[in-house]
TrEMBL record:
InterPro entries found in the cross-reference section: NAD(P)-bd_dom_sf (IPR036291), SDR_fam (IPR002347)
SUPFAM superfamilies, A to Z: NAD(P)-binding Rossmann-fold domains
Residue ranges, annotated region (Disordered): 217-249
Compositional bias (Basic and acidic residues): 234-249
Key words of the record: NADP, Oxidoreductase
Name of this chain's protein: Short chain alcohol dehydrogenase
Family assignment from sequence similarity: Belongs to the short-chain dehydrogenases/reductases (SDR) family.
Annotated organism of origin: Aaosphaeria arxii CBS 175.79
């Protein structure tokens, strides 16, 4: 539960929360006492996550969701308005998590194959344009309003509203055939620091969490049905690659998000959560 004199329950929009890191993020945020609205394109998985996986919170009216295609700006604008209604017109936190998470071109293609052009467009639209469009649609519900001046909310000890982009260590490091993914994730870095400066006067902080490799098969309906666990997905190499002597968990990303939500003096930062792997010579 949310505790401590400066901590309050926030209204949080999570994109791509039907499965994977987004599902874990949604659950840990709810466990911490926040309210969550989830967007995803996968209707069946989203329904399962909202009404079965998170059933207790759903019954209590703390979580709801909407099917939204992050490649469709009109859909984004309309579903953000729906989320804002659920939150009584006040969104505190946006987490831009949804996207194409597979780093390589499909089917072993290289960039010489002209058909990767379409995949390039999908990476850029889903992983870079969508966080811009989601942020643009949420800002009117996040920025400090005239009545915040009356209530003192703009000078309260609370950390204020914030936007968190989920990037990737692939913004900095590549294996072969990751041009689309790496470029979209590197683009998010520019979006993040530019937004941090532009949105400062509105009282909105903007940061980016760059996960390292995080196994997520257990964070899905299929994972639940097959009783997949995180440990079973981890190889010896997954451990050896990390100075932390263990592989990454979805909870590591949620811990970073919970930190950033309360970190009122932190904006414009790229927080890499990769167990130190980027620092280790391969
Ligand atoms: N898992 C990792 O190792 C890892 C590492 C670095 C960065 N990341 C980043 O973390 C985020 C989550 O990754 P994940 O591993 O949980 O991936 P995932 O594929 O398990 O989940 C991504 C979610 O986004 C949704 N999505 C995809 N396209 C969409 C669209 N057009 N509209 C709406 N929803 C859409 C999917 O349906 C899915 O629920 C991604 O941004 C990914 O790039 C993941």
């Amino acid at each position: 539960m949310v505790s401590g004199k400066n901590q309050i329950s926030r209204n949080i929009v999570v994109s791509g929360g039907a499965r994977g890191i987004g599902r874990a993020l949604s659950r840990y945020l709810l466990e911490a006492g926040h309210r969550v609205y989830i967007f995803d394109i996968d209707e069946d998985e989203l329904k399962y996550t909202t009404t079965t996986h998170l059933s207790q919170y759903h019954r209590e009216g703390k979580v709801d969701s909407a099917v939204c295609n992050l490649r469709d700006v009109e859909d984004i604008r309309s579903k953000v308005a729906t989320a804002a209604k659920f939150f009584n017109q006040k969104i505190d936190v946006l987490i831009n998590n949804g996207g194409i998470a597979s780093p390589q071109w499909s089917e072993g293609k290289t960039m010489e194959d002209p058909s990767t052009y379409k995949e390039w467009q999908a990476y850029i639209e889903t992983n870079l344009t969508a966080p811009f469009a989601m942020s643009q649609a949420c800002i009117p519900y996040m920025k400090f309003r005239a009545d915040d001046g009356n209530t003192g909310a703009h000078t309260s000890p609370n950390a204020g509203p914030c936007i968190i982009h989920i990037g990737s260590f692939r913004a900095h490091q590549s294996d072969p055939n990751q041009e689309g993914y790496a470029s979209s994730k590197a683009g998010q870095l520019g979006l993040m620091h530019s937004m941090a400066i532009s949105l400062g006067p509105l009282g909105i902080r903007v940061n980016l969490i760059a996960p390292g490799r995080v196994k997520v098969a257990h964070e899905s309906r299929e994972g639940d049905e097959n009783e997949t666990d995180w440990e079973g997905q981890i190889s010896e190499k997954d451990v050896d690659d990390h100075p932390t002597n263990r592989a990454g968990r979805p909870k590591d990303i949620a811990d970073a998000a919970l930190y950033l939500i309360e970190a009122g003096f932190v904006t414009g930062q790229d927080i890499t959560v990769d167990g130190g792997a980027l620092r280790k010579k391969r």
